[in-house]
Amino acid sequence: MPYHVDELRRDEPFPVSPETNEHAALRFLVANHDYGFLPSEIAAETEISKSSASKTMSRLHEKGLVSRSQGAYYVDPERVESLKRRLESLDAAVDLFDDAPDDAYADAGWEDELPELDPSDQSASGDTTDIDAETLVSNRVADDKA
Amino acid sequence: MTYSHGAVVSVPDPYDRRPSRPAVVISDEQCPDYGRRYTVAALTSSDRYGDHPYAVTIDADDPETGELLTQSYLEPWATHRIAHEDIRAMHARLAAATMKRIATAYAEMILRG
After folding, report:
1. pTM (two decimals)
2. Once rounded to an integer, what is the mean pLDDT over residues A50-58?
3. Which of A28, A139, B5, B77 is deepest in the core (most CB within 10 A)?
């Protein structure tokens, strides 16, 4: 079945939401990536209940985020860095939204009112400014006085 | 494909409950991990934030390419590190002159503190 064009153009959202059992378990496994853990051990080390730990780990495994061997779950060493980056980014995005005031960008569909640019089209002016910070501020102070 | 320094991008809500938020990429290829993640500064159209001395006013038609929804304010105090995959789209690119105004706001914030 062909992919919708949106799915080709956009990167997949991270398949784990913040403040979920899956998030807590993945965060734990990434932080302790030198070891593998049974679901009961993950439950003991996180706020995930024993009864839901197995289901949580199965879901993470089905999503391809964690590996499993002899009942123990672990993060593929080659994926530790990228998963760590995604988890940190998830936290950062939560902060970005927590800080966001109620403004025109809080209205649904604002992105559709704007053009969407191709990031690989690097038609920058090339007018880079090589100037030190202190000079920027002193120029600004001089401008303010003028 | 990377989002360039000065790109105005949208970042989706990780909870998928609210519309995405706009932000400006302020890191460049000299920063570690550039292309995999970006340092971004938040944008808002709220006057409450725009009245702040370090806020940088950016008119809707100010970008070199593309445009903003309305007159907006860059919040130098609200920076975040966002992974490439967590950026939805690029809507505008700010000109070097605007980036210089942003740099001045950061310099003031840091040097006058």
Report:
1. 0.87
2. 97
3. B5
Q: Is the dihedral of CA B103, A90, A46, A77 positive or negative?
A: negative
Q: Which residues of B touch A117 (CB under 8 A)?
A: 7, 65-66, 89-93
| pLDDT bracket for residue B51 (50, 70, 90) | confident
Chain A residues in contact with B4 (beta carbon < 8 A): 119, 122, 124
Q: Are strands B65-66 and A67-69 parallel, antiparallel or unpaired?
A: unpaired
ipTM of the complex: 0.93
Q: Residue A87's closest chain B neighbor by CA?
A: B83
